[in-house]
Amino acid sequence: MSSTEDESAGHASPEEEMAERIINMKDACLRQAKVVTGLQGRTLAITLRKTTEGEWYAALKDTGANKYLKLWMNRNKTFPTQIEALQAYFVFVKKMKTDCRLFPMSPRTNKTK
Fold this sequence. Notes:
By secondary structure, the chain is an alpha+beta fold. The protein has one domain. It contains three helices and three strands. Strand 1 and strand 2 form a beta hairpin. Helix 2 packs parallel to helix 3 (82-102). The radius of gyration is 18 Å and the shape is globular.
């Protein structure tokens, strides 16, 4: 059986499976970040960055402003693979989401003095 027959039979290559896992992990991280009040209304993307040492970390980018959100970078934790970086970033984003609920990024406007 040739490789094209394998692919047509529903068998994805390891590279395709890895790419799909990366897309799924990015989507999961983005779903967590998009519910944070201070980030709503922005065009966000999860990006993977490679350090000079060859390790990976994930970051949140506001694509509308073409800027990385420094508070939402996990630059101090790097990993040998993209999947490991995204898994760690997912945990980081969930923690940040919880922390932002406790300490909102923008003041509430419904309180009067």
